[in-house]
Write a structure and sequence with these properties.
Blueprint (H helix, E strand, L loop, with lengths): L1 H34 L4 H4 L13 H8 L3 H32 L5 H10 L9 H10 L6 H5 L6 H11 L4 H9 L4 H12 L1 H16 L3 H6 L9 H6 L9 H27 L10
Helix pairs in contact: 1-14, 3-14, 4-8, 4-11, 11-14
């Protein structure tokens, strides 16, 4: 009986701590959302709630004055295409390191993992010079190309693929099916939660990228991403923090939609449906 009481108290304590941490994490988003409906005079008011949720001028000005609609399209193209290419390359690399045996396999694997220890900011100058020499400045490809390869995603996919018996690949090969069929019909359905989670994570990371898009698109305002565009809504001469809040709310919409759509696939997985079709 005492043990049950201790377990109940422990579970209650963990729940309370989780709720407190959740409130701390989500409060900035709530404040941002509420502030986006405030007038310039209300924003300086310490009151949390706006006088009316029908004041939409901040959103209108953010889209028109800040050109956020174009920047949102740029970010979507960069995030979606960049994530798709990254996932394809990561899946193929993880498949090779899992199911193939070749000379220097472990050496190349740990060499790729070693790149995870290099801070991204260290490569900014060399990446910029490379992209510049390739004449890719102020282009979608110039922004995306540095994100096509991800050692961490390749590693996580490889760890997942190693849990799948190699006999399944051998069986499909004996039936006359190739590697691409095995990847598409067997491997990916079995790894759906991992693949979906990595896709969402990659999309959000590319969507939220700021420094690299700022550098690559510096001379072409039309090619800016939404994160770069949001910072342009405010200036020292004209402080419009409520516009920034509205811009942040707009920028969150695609990520939220993606998470809601992909949420079910992030939970499902296993052997169900892996050999269908």
């Amino acid at each position: 009986m005492k043990r049950k009481q201790k377990d109940f108290l422990f579970d209650t304590l963990i729940t309370v701590i989780a709720i407190i941490l959740g409130i701390i994490i989500i409060f900035p988003l709530i404040y941002c959302f509420l502030s986006s409906f405030k007038t310039p005079s209300e924003f300086l008011n310490p009151k949390l709630f706006p006088s009316s949720f029908l004041y939409l001028d901040n959103f209108k000005n953010a889209l028109e004055r800040g050109n956020l609609l174009r920047y949102t399209l740029n970010s979507f193209v960069i995030a979606f295409v960049g994530t798709a290419v990254r996932m394809v390359l990561s899946i193929l690399a993880a498949y090779a390191f899992t199911f193939y045996d070749f000379k220097g396999k472990n050496f190349f694997f740990f060499l790729i993992l070693g790149t995870m220890m290099i801070p991204g900011d260290v490569l900014l100058v060399t990446n910029y010079l490379t992209v510049s020499k390739m004449h890719l400045l102020n282009t979608y490809l110039g922004v995306m190309i540095v994100s096509f390869v991800s050692a961490s995603q390749m590693f996580m996919l490889r760890q997942r693929f190693k849990t799948i018996p190699k006999d399944m690949r051998e069986a499909s090969s004996m039936d006359g099916y190739g590697d691409l069929w095995f990847i598409w019909k067997v491997l990916l359905p079995l790894s759906k939660p991992v693949v979906t989670t990595l896709f969402v994570q990659s999309f959000i990371n590319l969507w939220n990228a700021y420094l690299w898009p700022l550098i690559v698109t510096a001379s072409s305002p039309e090619m800016r991403t939404v994160m770069v565009g949001i910072t342009r809504l405010n200036s020292w001469e004209d402080e419009n923090y409520q516009l920034v809040m509205a811009g942040v709310c707009i920028s969150l919409i695609p990520s939220l939609i993606l998470f809601i759509v992909m949420r079910r696939n992030m939970k499902k997985g296993g052997l169900d449906g892996s050999l269908v079709g």
